[in-house]
Amino acid sequence: MNLRSAISAPLPWLALLTSIFFGKKPKKAARHTLIRLPRTLSFTREGIGFIIVLFLVGIAAINTGNNMLYLVVAMLLSLIIISGIMSELTLRNITIKRSAIYHIFAGKQVLITWKILSGKRYTTSYSFIIEELPVEEMTSSDLYTLKFHPKGAFTRNITYIFNRRGLYSLKGFKISTRFPFGLFTKGREESFKTEVLVFPRIKPLKRYPPYGIITGDYPQRKNGIGSQPYTLRDYNTADDARLIHWKSTAKSSKLLAKEFEKEGNKKVLIVLQNHGQTALNDRFEELVEYTASLANYLINKGYSVGLKTMDMEVPCRDGKKQLYAILRTLAIVKYIDKDDVTPSLKVIEI
Amino acid sequence: MLIVTYLITTLGLMALSLIETIDRIFIFIISAIVASTLLVNLRGGIRLPRTVWNISAIVIFTLFLLDYYTFSRSLIDASARFLAILIVLRLIDLRSTRDHLILYILNFFQILAAASSTISPIFFLILFLYVVSIIWGMVIFTLKREWDARGLSGTAMPKNILGGTFFIGTVGLTTASIVITLSIFFLIPRMEMGFFDRKTFNIIKMAGFSEEVKLGSIGSIKEDRTIVMRVELADFDTPPPSIYFRGITLDHYDGYRWKRTIKDRTTLEKDKHGLFSIKSSKKTGLLKQNILLEPIDTDVIFTAFRGIAVEGRFPSIMADTAGSFYMRTPSFSRFGYTAYSILPESMKNRSYNSIDNATFITDDPNIILNKPGNYDSVLKNYLQLPEGSDRLKGLLQGLVDKDKPSLLKAKAIESYLKKNYRYTLNPKHKDGIEPLEDFLFFSKEGYCEQFATAMAMLLRAAGIPSRVVTGFLSGEWNRFGNYLIVRQIDAHSWVETYLPGAGWVLFDPTPQAGTIIELQTPTFLLYLDSLKWKWHRYIVNYSFSDQIRLTRKIHFQTNAMFNRLKETFRMHTIPEFERYRVHYMILILIITLLTLSLIRTLKRKNTRRNHKTPDFYLKMMDMLKKKGFVRKLSETPFEFAKRCSSPAVLDITIIYTKIRFGNSGLTPGVLKEVKNRLQIVKAGLK
Questions:
Q1: Crossing angle of helices B75-92 and B97-115, rounded to 10°
Q2: pLDDT at residue number A174
């Protein structure tokens, strides 16, 4: 027996009472959760008509005392009860699982796989709709199922669009049905919490490189493996004899070994100024998107790219992993209000 | 969907036919058109232009108004006809799923119209079938509409959705719906507001129950088998002895007709118990009757013997000093009521019923309607004789001894008439002679009216106040419902005589041939009538008082059940048990907990089994296990299949892994293949 819901149900009320006891005004959202019913119910157009007819026949039955009309009223009421039971049988014991979601970009369609499972032993579910619980700036398609056998399972790919970058909290699903008579739409929520990180949009850069960057390997100004001599040092026995710089050895009368300058990718550090006036928030968002696009471009070209914002830093590295590290940072980077400052972007070649 | 729609339409038409005022020809024409539209729809249907629709709608509405204001003047009749024509029009042009829904609604209103104007048990049958059809239709409609709106666009809804299981489900739904309907019907609180709302035009015309009755008028109805009322006698489950259902009493005879000249009707007020009662000293030992009266053209409320209280949906009723009850107007519909009567001594050993708390004070006719006064002046009215009764007195002289008490005189007259006169429904009549004289001195044959009149006149001639009472005598006992079916054929007249100290005493001078009517109604018809009776008793006339009775009954029965349980428990409180009570309690607790945990474990095991491993693989494993092939814990499914060295086992294992780990579905084709392979495995093991 799952007692979680039974235990958790009175908690919001206790919280409210406690806050009232201590003289605090409860939050609006908290008040909403208090009257959260396990099922949602709304009337369809036919349902409204049905209720009106029921009401009128009921009045006629009372007015005339005609038991035949009472019988009709009873029949109509029984249809409501049957409708409630059938819709409940359809809705219950359906579990939905969302597949793990990676690399989602703002504004782009993404397919997420739903796995729908029936935990019912005998009853078949008919004509129900599953949809994602509404989340701001997110749209998703829904899934209609005409018949779902007991113990059945199936998967479907559902289209999602996240309109902006950032961290989204997907709460779960709403399963609703008009079955069996189409008089009411009954729904229930199936909790399945997932956090989704949406990367900023990446746009193709049309005029690039604006900084005159040439591709290829560049000296790194430190010792390592390379072709150009970097410095000399005392030879030790572990060194290869071929590293001995004979001319210098002759001059200094001691064995000296050559060291070479390390050669590797060119490094670029993108500095994003995420402080600025509130009015320039849109400009900042554009800069974030440009930063993502630039990082994507440079990494694709083989650069080591780093990112620095006012509160976060990603050290320079190359490769796809680095791109996603930068995108992750850009996905959550916040715009901080600060007067007399303009959000800006700088690219520093190291 | 078309079939369901036509089924519903047929039911709508059947409901229409229950409205008495709707012409049968109209129903026939509409039915014929409906049948022809079915042929049209089976061939693809007709698409009517919108203009035709609009014009038709205006014409039909005009006809409806014309019908209502000019012809029928009844909203129900006019609406029912209007709906029938609309249904036909809609059937001609069945385009979309929505059209079907509109037809369901129109037919619902037809049923509603029938509900408000019929009390026929067939209505329940129609309602039941309508519920079956409407549930079926609405479910299909909802699925189809949802599919069209959200399913795969451009594709038809899969037909296998509506298979046998679906039908069985619908039947289950309907059964549940009917059970719930009846439960709600009995539970909805009744407001006692309506009264005789369903008028019928088939009123039974009956002579003999008005304030003026021509001698011989009952004879005309004595051959009519039309049912007048059905009477359930409380506590009687076997045929009762003769019961006289009293109607009206007549005091004045002019030689040709009987009249009630004493105008003393008084309106009775409903007491706090909902009873219209006349004063009586009797509180217990009363005979309770549940009477279902057919619509007849009399305002008399019939009660067995001397009724003292009536209960029912009457706004008000009246009574006279003779103890007869009357409605304000004759009932134009079948209705039920309960009557309480003083039980004659002869029946007292059969049934006792009490209406405690009722306000019965005395049985004295002086104050029967709380009208104190000299009753002797009233009694004078019951000594009236028509002119020229000398011959009657002459007959009396040879019949009774003057000095004997009134009771003996009355018995002698009763006996004389019974023995010396013949009962016949077609007495010979001699022209120019008064009917009574003709009966007594010439034809010497007649039926109850003549016998009663003769006795009353002879008693009056002897100075004993007497009156003629018209009503019904017994009826046919229906063993299926344990009630009496009273027909017109049971109409009867008898005499009531006032005996000082005893009050009004009943005498019936009619010979046995006229009081015992043997009807051989076929068993099947009796059974049908019992259904009709139950329908009216428990559905049509179900009232607030019935609800109270039902609640009390449930209350008492529940109490009785709990008491029985308590008794049973008490029986087991033996000393041994008392001593080890705590031990027993702990034992019971442990057993309960163990059972619960076992159920839970089994459930969990079952769930795991159901969710992860397909049944067919488990079945194969079971089959192999019986022959000693058991998969080791360290073995993968494929290693095990390889060890079994059977291609069929390997095939099943491949399918199993695809389903279990590859997220593949078990399609009908795959299932077929699995079944084949399982057969091979089974055959191989043999």
A1: 160
A2: 92
Residue A142 in this model has a pLDDT that exceeds 70: yes
Percent of chain B with pLDDT over 70: 83
Angle in degrees, CA B602, B605, B611, rounded to 5: 135
Burial class (CB in 10 A: 0-12, 13-18, 19+), B476: buried
Q: Which of A64, A75, A77, A79 to mutate to test the interface with B (most CBs of B within 10 A)?
A: A75
Those residues with Cβ within 8 angstroms of residue A17's Cβ, 6 or more apart along the chain or in another chain = none
Size of interface A-B (CB pairs under 8 A): 141
The encoded tokens of residue B204 equal 């039974």
Does residue B508 contact residue B414 with C-beta atoms inside 8 Å? yes
Min CA distance, A238 vs chain B (Å)?
51
pLDDT tens-digit map of B323-332: 888 888 777 6
Q: Tell me the pLDDT band of B154, cut-offs 50, 70 and 90.
A: low
Note the ipTM here: 0.70
Predicted local distance difference test score (pLDDT) of residue B364:
45
What pTM value is reported for the model?
Answer: 0.61
Q: Convert A189-210 to b/e letters by CB count within 10 Å (16 or more is b).
A: bbebeeebbbbbbbeeeeeeee
pLDDT in tens, A160-185: 999 999 999 998 999 999 988 888 89
Half-sphere exposure of B577 (CA within 13 A, CB side): 7
Which two structure tokens, joined as six digits, stand for B321? Answer: 């000093």
| Cβ-based neighbour number of residue B481 at 10 Å | 19
Residue with tokens 């079971």: B622
Chain A, residues 31-90, CB within 8 A of chain B, namely 46, 49, 53, 57, 60, 62-75, 77-79, 81-82, 85-86
Predicted pLDDT of residue B577: 64
Give burial (CB, 10 Å; 0-12/13-18/19+) of B189: exposed
Q: Looking at the predicted structure, is the pLDDT value of residue A340 above 50?
A: yes
Q: Name which of B101, B141, B181 is nearest A74 (Cβ-Cβ).
A: B181
Kindly identify which residue of chain B lies nearest to residue A155, measuring between CA atoms: B663
- Nearest Cα of chain B lies from the Cα of A124 at a distance, in angstroms, of 9
pLDDT > 90: what percent of chain A? 17
Q: Quick one: CA torsion of B131, B134, B137, B142, rounded to 10 degrees?
A: -110
Window 115-174 of A: residues touching B by CB (8 A cutoff) are 117, 119, 121, 124, 126-127, 129, 142, 144, 146-147, 151, 153-155
Q: For the range B565-573, what are the long-range contacts, defined as Cβ-Cβ under 8 Å and sequence gap of 24 or more?
A: none
Tell me whether residues A72 and B193 touch, CB distance under 8 A: no
Alpha-carbon B24 to chain mean position = 26
